Amino acid sequence: MRDAHAINLSWLLKLRWGAVVGQVVLILLADLGVGMPLPLVPLFATVGVGAASNVALGLWARRPREIREWMLWAVMALDVGVLTVLLDLSGGPFNPFSTLYLVHIALAAVVLHARWTWALVTLALGCFGALFFRHLWVPGGATGGVHHHHINDVPLHLEGMWLAFGVASGFIVYFVQRVTRALAEREAELVAARAVTARNEKLAALATLAAGAAHELSTPLSTIAVVARELERRAELSPAGREDAQLIRQQVARCHDILAQMAADAGASRGEAFVAVTPVVLLESALDGLRGRERVQVETGGLQGKEEVTLPARALTHAIRGVVKNALQASPSGGQVRLALVREEQGWRLSVEDAGEGMPAEVLARAGEPFFTTKPPGEGMGLGLFLARAVLDQLGGRLELRSVPGKGTRVEMAWPVERLRQFAPLSSEAEGATVQPSGA
Question: How many whole angstroms separate alpha carbon 96 and alpha carbon 163?
């Protein structure tokens, strides 16, 4: 993330160019439009100082360097000095555009700390006050007098005040809105970053829990397996008893596999090596051996699968498989699940659409939380969706869902084609329309 002072300096550069253009336009308007004789050479020379300083500042800021707060204050102080000279050459304190001092003060209040802001306020007050002691009166004019000034033409002075008020108001509103938008964007980034951090903490806790469960249960499961084998070998045991003992050993082995899979799924995406694989092959691997595979319709849009993406294939395969499995379970018996793989400009997008009943708002609000599930007991633990979102976040992708009760659910999984990031800077949880897949 860029340093705040560097961002503020880039704003200043753009705004100073706007000020240069505005100063040139106002000078020409006063001289040619109003017919007010002005010392054009000194005025344009002063504007040229501001333009030249902005060019130099832009070239200096291109090189990577630390921007300090006093540097921003120095730039604003220079602008106050330039404005003072321009006012001195065009009527001094009677020039209605003296209100533009407020623009510099408002900008300082936005981007500087209090002590620097008050320092600029003091400088502006001193410069404005100095105009009362000495300034250049505008000679000649409509009355032909030697010392003609704005104060001798009240309508012109009032019109100038109105124009200056509009210019100052426009700049101040622009500053405030830009800062407000920047603060809102920063807050959204912080909220999303907290959500990603919380999810990663849950993922780490889940991996620890699974590993601990596997360790604690390994001894009693091994004991049960040994006893079952001894029962199976006993000669006096009936054939039915041997079948029961064999079934016990099979179920114990299944428990071992489930615990190992929990630990692997919870931590695979962090330790798995990145490999080159085509998205089409990735999708085929996710569907291979899946129960209900015949009910899945796959659309690849004619993609031949030649373009490869470097990613943790096993973790993403399990994520896709979990989403498709949820869609199959959410669909009625015989209902079709539609998969569509599309190549986009930034990467790949896989949409999974089921034929289920959709989810109400209260379920959508909690979908994806660890161990939250709407499935019957024994059909799921509510971890698939959570792990799928965590994997995509780590790849710099996203998972989005749209569900309407009675009209099924559509899940979209996207991942970039560029080198995948370890963690996404923003999470789609910051967007209200982004939720987790159905069948949690």
Answer: 8
Positive or negative: CA dihedral 264, 269, 270, 276:
positive
Q: Residue 376 carries which DSSP code?
A: P
SS (H, E, C) 278-342: CHHHHHHHHHCCCCCHHHEEEECCCCCCCCCEEECHHHHHHHHHHHHHHHHHHCCCCCCEEEEEE
Structure confidence at residue 134 (pLDDT): 66
Helix (H) / strand (E) element for 413: namely: strand 409-416
Q: How far apart are CA 292 and CA 277, in angstroms?
A: 25
By C-alpha distance, which of 438, 353, 328 is closest to 388? 438
End-to-end CA distance of the chain: 35
Q: Where are the domains of the chain?
A: 4-152, 272-440
Strands (E), 354-407: 398-403
Whether pLDDT at 144 is above 70: no
Classify domain 272-440 by CATH number: 3.30.565.10
pTM equals 0.47
Q: What is d(CA 94, CA 151) in angstroms, rounded to the nearest whole number?
A: 7
List phi, psi (to 5°) of 292. Answer: 90, 15
How many whole angstroms separate alpha carbon 322 and alpha carbon 131?
75
The reported pLDDT for the residue numbered 118 is: 92
The two structure tokens encoding residue 83: 């404005």
Contact 84, 124 (CB under 8 A): no
Parallel, antiparallel or unpaired: strands 347-353 and 409-416: antiparallel
